[in-house]
Amino acid sequence: MMNHHLLPPYLSLLQRSFLVSRGRTGTLGRWARWAVLGVCLALPAVQAQMAPSLQTGQDGPNARIEVLGAAFEPLGAVAAHQSRLVLYRQASQQSLPGVTAAFIEGRYHTSLVAGGFTALCLAPGQLQVGARQSWVGRTARDVYDAITQLELLPGQTHYMSVHVDGGRALFKPVSSAQALKEMASTRAQMHAVSRVIGAQECERPAQAQAQAQAPMPEQDEPFMLLADMAFEFGQSAMEGMTQQGKVALQTVLVQAKREFEQVQRVLVTGHADPLGSAPFNERLSLQRAQTVGQYLQSTGLTQGPIAVRGVGSSQLLVSDCPSAVSARSVACNGPNRRVVIELFGQRR
Prior knowledge:
The protein is α+β, with helices and mostly antiparallel strands. The protein folds into two domains: 4-52 and 67-189, no CATH class; 217-347, CATH 3.30.1330.60. The chain has eight helices and 18 strands. The strands form five sheets. It has a six-stranded mixed β-sheet with strand order 5-14-9-6-12-13. A four-stranded antiparallel β-sheet has the order 8-7-10-11. It has a four-stranded mixed β-sheet with strand order 15-18-16-17. A hairpin with a 2-residue loop joins β1 (20-22) and β2 (25-27). The longest helix has 21 residues, at 278-298. The radius of gyration is 22 Å and the shape is globular.
């Protein structure tokens, strides 16, 4: 901890960097007591970029404060009743000043420097992830730069990267393949006290099974797999599937063999972005589901039925993209052109 005589110089910096929000508005007063006790957090929040440690100019144990911890390693599977959320900021984002504060459902979680990442597990369901950029010399805005709506799927790891749009920071969903490539040089963000309600210790599937009172060889709860950014804009045939989508389908087959003794039925749900009319998007999303369903049938994944459905653009992962059709809006809506695959059967 920092010596108490250092508190006054850094308290105002802490206040600018760690405003904690409910909804879109920050409230600081009720967090004053933990802010004072954790004042050393202000240093990485307002000064650090990619440095793994900070030189404070002080003598003794406070001479250097570690900002980034262990290097990122690919994460294992997570229990079916949980979802893992990974937020990261690429090491190459040195030009973005200050830190990117992350808020989950209006609660402060951490502040990311360039090259930092954080991970936590939560219950599956809809989630709002807010971003706000803070740096020395600027008055902190008491609102988020952007809010991203995300659907956490059971047993899945979701990745969100810091992006810059018109000078505003936002967390954007990215595919696991893209995330693993971009996170190769990142390290764990340290010195942040998360205030997220409902955060859980991540459990591996084997741990969750060991805690069960009785085995459940057959269950109705689906195992969900997400093939995000699966199709090119306006495409639904196999030829229009992106490379990321094709890789995701192969991942589906690998995980199905690992998780199931027998897959008894499959439900494929196609999604579309909001660019275009509602009837067109409904047809397009259904055609995407049919394409994936036919492919899964050809692999022998299951001898049971494979049901398909399309929900159009009614369940967007990203909702703040430009409404007019343009290269920017097409790229922004990539995560919305997705397919969700639900497997039912006898688990291992």
